[in-house]
Structures are given as C-alpha cells and as structure tokens.
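DOMAIN: structural biology
WANTED: fold as tokens
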Amino acid sequence: MKRILFGIATAASMLASGALAADLPTKVYTKAPPPVVEVYNWTGFYIGGNIGYSWGRSSDYSTLTNGAGTVLFANSSSANLDGVVGGGQIGYNWQVQNWVWGFEADIQGTDEKGTRSFVCPTGVCTPTFGVVAVFPGPPLTVGPMDQKIEWFGTVRARGGILVTPKVLLYATGGLAYGDVRTAETISTPAAAGVFATTDTRVGWTAGVGVEGAIGGNWTAKLEYLYVDLGRTTGSYLTALPAFGGGFITGNFSSRITDNILRVGVNYRFGGPVVARY
C-alpha cells in the first residue's frame, strides 16, 4: 500500500512540474539589425575659399620708335610677378564609383607685381634704368616698366580618382582670364611721358590637386595651377622729340604666365549616403 501511495505522489509531482514549466514564458531570440554605415558621396554643389602664393613671370619685348615708325631702341627682358593670391570658388561634382568628375569656377584677387629695366645699348646705364642717346636732343631716360596682375579667374573641368572614399586626387584645366596693369615713364631732363593701361586677357590654365573630407560636409584641398594669360600689348605717344622726326612712341608686348600654389576649403551641399549592409 505504501508503495502504491509513493508512486501516486511521484507521478503527481512530475505532472505538477510539467504544468509549471508549460506556464513559464518562452524566450524568443531575434536577429540584430544590420549596422548603419555612412558612405561618403562627392556628388553635389559646393562653395569655398582659398589662399596661396604665386610665382608669375612677364616676358617683354619693347621698342621706341620715331614718327616714321623707325625703331630707335629695342629691348627684350623679363620680370617676376610674385605675390599673395586669394579668393573663392564654386563647383559641382559627379561621383561614378571611384571616379569623380566636375566643373569649378573661381575668382582671385592678387598683389602680384614686378618691375623690369631696360638693358641700355648706348649711353649711360644704371641698375634701375637705361639712358639712350637720341639725337638731336638730350639723352632719353627709359624708366622701369611696372606690371601687376590685378585679378584673375578660371573656369575649369575637374576629374580624378578616389584613393580612399574620402581622399580625391584630381587633374584640372580650362579657361583663364584676368587684368594686367602696365605703367612706364620715359623722360628727358626737361620733360617726361607717363603711360599706364589695364588690359583684360584671356588664356588657359591646367593643374593638379588633392582634396579630402575633414568632417561633416567640409573638405580641404591643396592645388597647383599653371596660368597663361597670353600677351598684353600697348603703345603710347609721348611729347618727346624723336631722332628722325616726330615724337617718340613706346611699344610693348608682354607674355604673362603664373605658377600658383594654394590651399582651400569647400562646403558641399547634401550629406553622406546612409546605407545598411
């Protein structure tokens, strides 16, 4: 009898344990969501600023002629047009896989300027000016020519490859334009002729650069540009008597080139692409 009661109690205990286990909540395992990854995308408009330094060059050919057009003096020389440059840029990029293409326009103010002196073929010369014997009449002093790049701008295509998702190596090239101011004084002991003009030139530019994301929508760049503004030319009639008749006319033709190294920052409108993997 005891054995029967013990068996019934054991069975009841097992049934009760099963019922309690059935009443417990079942633990549910769920898969974690995929991580959110920011993919940097270069596509979009941007605007920015830059500052740098320029090593320019003016290669000049000048003449002095009389009323009949006879050349009394000819000189070939050159001068450095060095100075600080700074300005702003705006552009648009398209990213296609690891390639980035786009267009950029910029405008620059400069203090690039330089002076070149004649090499005097006759008479007495000093390091800063030449004295030419022009007869009849007193010696003629040919003062230095001062030239300055007042401002310039470019409109360029850009294309490059992403060495990392946030670092772009690129080449660029296109149109360049700018103002070149030229001033010169020619004088005798009794009189002087002063000439100045500003000429807007159109030429071309090419260069290379590197640009990288530095946080948010901001990028920073280092860029080199070669700029060729072509030739600025001019002539001016003085009131100084010339050998052979008439009055002295000054003529110049200067080719203006520039080497520019600058740093800049850009703000790109839009943001990184948010993707789940």
Notes: The two ends are 69 Å apart (CA to CA). The chain has a mean pLDDT of 81.
